[in-house]
Amino acid sequence: MGKFRDILFARNAPAKANLDNLFAMPSAGITLEVSANLVSTGSAAVCFKPASGAAFQNTSQDFNSILEQMSSTKPPRESTDSLGYRWIIIDADDLESLTTEIHSVNSTLESNGFGPQLLCSVFPMRDKDGDRKVYLIYLYKRGTFYPFAPLGGEKRDNERELSLQALLKSDLPLESDLERWFPIWEMPL
Prior knowledge:
This protein is of the alpha+beta class.
């Protein structure tokens, strides 16, 4: 009866995240370098909302020790933004290693019960001949990516975002609903 009620009222379970979609990033990185003059900054981050209460406090030390044991040559950094979101920042020498580490952080959070708190993973890219950045944002709950191209202040380059979408459509599972292309203005990257 419950399933019938869900169908009748158009309630569907949310799609399960597919963390393996992250492994499409190195291929997308090649496309971006060749066709858009963009390269990885050597950093990426996972953003999540820390759970409140004793459960999160009790596992926080375990989580930090897991992060310290990760195979990256540089230890992960942490930051908390003004909205209370926690960022785990990874540095690596190449996009393949960076992707593997970001996948590992997401998997660690998920396997330790923090899956519902995971928001996104962010891969900043920069112009080879300048400092201008664009970000490829992976939406955890959707299993999709979208480009974010800030201009300065709280303005974004929609034209560049759409051109990157067209460029990456065969490399990445892209978010088709443009209303879900949320700007993230305060990133510690």
